[in-house]
Amino acid sequence: MDFPFTPRYIPMNRRRRIYEGKAKILYEGPEPGTLIQHFKDDATAFNNKKHAVIDGKGVLNNRISEFVFNQLNALGVPTHFIKRLNMREQLIREVEIIPLEVVVRNVSAGSLSTRLGIPEGTQLPRSIIEFYYKNDELNDPMVSEEHITAFGWASPQDIDDVMALAIRVNDFLSGLFLGVGIRLVDFKIEFGRLWEGDMMRIVLADEISPDSCRLWDQSTGDKLDKDRFRRDLGGMLEAYQEVARRLGILNDNSGPAPTGPTLVQ
Ligand SMILES: Nc1ncnc2c1ncn2[C@@H]1O[C@H](COP(=O)(O)OP(=O)(O)O)[C@@H](O)[C@H]1O
Ligand SMILES: [Mg+2]
């Protein structure tokens, strides 16, 4: 390494791409231990069997996820999020991803309804946490704590931490959405290990957006999430915009008219 070491600006096209997933790209960050998370407009479902490009989705998810992660950070829920850099990108801490999709459910929908024959929309007696092994080739199969510890994907202590954090995220998100007339049916989150010297902390990673949540309008039951795409309902971008608008993220043009010179007749 050259000394003195000066951080350099890396132009977009020179950045080292670490990983390209279905919805996001990870680039090397400006400092060691950081990454840049870039939100694409791609929408995929059923493990990539269905694909489309929805112009502007990435921008909305970037903003919605920033909003949620900032508030979680402020509440003391440890997350990978550092700051939003631009319309599509955010600076995050690089973590060692635990290969689990952690799903929290409040209301029955999707695969839970299909598998157990519980009608969609049934309020669950309590929140339920499920684990899926994050592996596209295997279609993200559902696994139990026994599988997770036996195969070494996470320790019993890791699982305790993950579950405690998942419940805190659920409590926060449920209240946040309830306050803007949205029912949080379920959501998927991911966690990673953050090493600080010899110390390891489990932190919330990836994203929280209408791509990863089921959000139903409280009064009409309208779906405001990726199910619009999965089920060919149309209006996906409008639904995501509506979520952003209700959270106060988008300027909705319906506010007071801008002040400025007025025409005098
Ligand atoms: N802080 C982080 N450090 C390292 N990897 C991360 C971090 N946050 C998210 N990831 C990983 O980056 C990828 C994000 O891209 P995405 O398009 O969602 O991928 P996928 O198609 O695997 O779901 C995911 O695989 C996720 O596990
Ligand atoms: Mg993903």
How would you sum up this structure, described in words?
- The structure is a single chain.
- The protein has 265 residues and is α+β, with helices and mostly antiparallel strands.
- The chain has two domains: 82 residues, 2-Layer Sandwich (Phosphorylase Kinase, domain 1); 151 residues, D-amino Acid Aminotransferase, Chain A, domain 1 (2-Layer Sandwich).
- It is 26% helix and 31% strand.
- It contains six helices and 14 strands.
- Strands 8, 9, 10, 11, 12, 13 and 14 form a seven-stranded antiparallel sheet that branches.
- A hairpin with a 4-residue loop joins β4 and β5.
- α1 runs parallel beside α6.
- The protein is globular and about 75 Å long.
- The N and C termini lie far apart (69 Å).
- Magnesium ion binds next to loops.
- Adenosine-5'-diphosphate binds next to β2, β7 and β12.
Bound molecules: adenosine-5'-diphosphate, magnesium ion
Distance between the termini: 69 Å
Beta-strand portion reads 25-35%
Helix/sheet category:
alpha+beta
Mean pLDDT: 93
GO molecular function: ATP binding; phosphoribosylaminoimidazolesuccinocarboxamide synthase activity
Catalytic activity: 5-amino-1-(5-phospho-D-ribosyl)imidazole-4-carboxylate + L-aspartate + ATP = (2S)-2-[5-amino-1-(5-phospho-beta-D-ribosyl)imidazole-4-carboxamido]succinate + ADP + phosphate + 2 H(+)
GO cellular component, one term: cytosol
Family: Belongs to the SAICAR synthetase family.
Key descriptive features of the protein:
Phosphorylase Kinase, domain 1; 265 residues; D-amino Acid Aminotransferase, Chain A, domain 1; 14 strands; SAICAR_synt_PurC; binds adenosine-5'-diphosphate; binds magnesium ion; ligase; 2 domains; alpha+beta
